[in-house]
Amino acid sequence: MSTSPLRFGLCTFSCHRHWEAVRAKQPGTQFTGPVSFLDYGHRLGAAGVQTRVQNDEFARQMRERCDALGAYYEGDVRLPRKPEDVAAFDSDVRWAKAAGASVARAVLMGGRRYEVFKSLTEFRNYQTGCRRTLQLVEPVLRKHGLKLAIENHKDQLIHEMIPMLRELGSEWVGVCVDTGNNIALLEEPHAVVEALAPMAFSVHLKDMAVQPAPDGFLLSEVPLGTGFLDLPKIIKALHAANPSIVFNIEMGTRDPLHVPCLTQAYWATFPQRPASELAKAMASVHDHPPKADPPSITGKPMAQQIGDEEANNRRCIEWMKAVQA
Length: 325
Fold this sequence. Notes:
By secondary structure, this protein is an alpha/beta fold.
């Protein structure tokens, strides 16, 4: 592993229950915007945050606060879908850069492939749109000198995502490697990390638990070190590929996600995948029972959800500190 120190912090979704309370204007929240989110993360022991800033004043405050704390900041930007959206994207990039970011994360699609698309034609149209989007954003990124980290977000298989980025061929566009997402697409998570590491600009670091379900399996984020991923191996591969990379913890405190891979509808956008891939994925599910009950939020008051979320993030940060020691 590189001798440069590991840097780790929090991304927005690691505190999504808390952010939901902020949006609902509930009393007692510990942060209300991006700068106070940085302060909150710092109190928990995080070295920085990955989140969105949306105006010049927030950008100025974020940069000043990061300088005061010795913290890092990574942006989170919204991608344009058509040429008339590029001006708003330019503002997002400019604010992220002004706030001190050298990297910003983005997603090409917010949903899950097997839920959004009902046919292979729909998915291929989406891929065409992705290529168009990347062509729109590249000149903006180059102009402002900001690197864009596209997350593998339960949308594309590795052999689909990597050629798309290589086709663009830009030093300004790489990957935010999510260490658990592609399990939902039945890809082996450690192989996914190894494949994406050479293009990695940022990381969403998570550990995962799986449980069988009647029509597939349940997938959960769990505190680092309590799931089935080989996190030391993953961290070593990513840090070696990019010694300046930061590890944004993404501990999603929520109900387990349902992956209905034993249904016909799930396979609508996956042509010619061998049955062995399903067999291997389900074997892994059965071979890795959860070490403890995965997180859940159904039936819990918001205050308890936020408390559970903070406890989970604290456990993740303590685990990262122990790895770094």
